[in-house]
Amino acid sequence: MSFTTKFTENELEALTEKSIIPRFAFFPGGLVGLAALAWAWPSDSMGWTVFWTLFTAYNLFCWTSCFHETAHQTLCGSATLSIWLGRILGTAMFTPYTVYRESHIRHHAYLNKPTDWELWPYSDPKASLTFRRIFVWLDLFLGLFTAPLIYGRTYFHKDSPIKNPAIRRAIAWEYVGMVAIWGAVLAVTAYYGSWMGLLTVWFVPHWIAGIFQNGRKFTEHLGMSSYDPLKGTRTVIANNPVSRLCTYLNFDIFVHGPHHRHPRVAHDQLIAKMEGYFDEHGRESFPVYPTYLQATWSMLPNMWRTPGVGVNADGELPDLEQSPEIENFVADVTTEVVEYGREAVSPAS
User: How far is 55 from 77, CA to CA, in rounded Å?
Assistant: First the structure.
């Protein structure tokens, strides 16, 4: 098991050559929003407070997409930059970088299967329908708390798939660092009696960003029964300027199917990958939507009917023994995992 993603020379060249700086507009945007809330600029009226709260929350949501890219180490050609930026973002989001990365590797390898820890409890056949119907709403509106819980399960659970001592030690130290930093923040806040300021400036925008993030998770996954990356996720290829801008600022994560099939591919190549599959198999073969609203509308009935994926979405029980043990992101999930040992859908050029 490795702390770094192993890329081919061509994959690494694509990561090195692409431009990412314009996509980082959400970083200064988020800082501007936080500062505006902290200093009540230009006034402390309800209208401005609501505006800056929502503005900041969306920028923080984009931070979560950046966190996702750091886990894949596809931001650029530097794994070191991804790791340390990921640790900073993970600390801010109460989720250690390495535990997120380990969970996410398995999310790609075992999409919608019971061993997809990241989609617990929706992927877990032992989780009752009643429990999932309750938890899905807690997960949506309290993602600030449920996300660290879900990722933490991957590490703390008695059946944790994370066995490597070095990986577990790194996660433990990241938890120690996170507790120390937030302990210091809370101590300073208590000393100055600035609880309302911390709530207003950080926790409320972070809470709303959690709703955006888990809403995205549900839109792309909830109700999907297939274990194939292209058919077991909802993909959005935007057809309007607003959706394209949102896709751009979130590192094309909305183009979710090809990202799941090719988790090492540079994000600016994902649409081309999907177009290749369209040419081979037809657009109607895949759950692809022109707007995020349409994808969300397709997902919504699953919020109360059958909040689940895979087996819990009426899928067949997968043959868990068929997949090899995956310890890193692979080049093509379908050929290396889903169809392990069998003929797979030919990759797009």
Answer: 30
Secondary structure (DSSP) of 141-190: HTHHHHHHHHHHHHHHSTT-S---HHHHHHHHHHHHHHHHHHHHHHHHHH
CA-CA distance, 344 to 220, in Å (whole number)?
A: 23
pLDDT-based confidence at residue 343 (cuts at 50, 70, 90): very low
Q: Which two tokens stand for residue 76?
A: 């650029």
Q: What is the dihedral of CA 77, 206, 259, 289, to 10 degrees?
A: -140
Beta strands in the chain (DSSP E): 235-236, 288-289
Residue showing tokens 């995992």: 337
The HSE-up count of residue 144 (CA atoms within 13 Å, CB side) is 14
Q: How confident is the model at residue 344 (pLDDT cuts 50, 70, 90)?
A: very low
Cα 211 to Cα 217: distance, rounded to the nearest angstrom: 10
What's the residue count for the chain? 349
Is a pLDDT exceeding 60 seen at residue 341?
no
The residues, any chain, with a CB within 8 Å of residue 213's CB and separated by 6 or more, are: 61, 64, 143, 147
* Residue 348: pLDDT band with limits 50, 70, 90: very low
Round to the nearest angstrom and report the end-to-end CA distance of the chain: 29
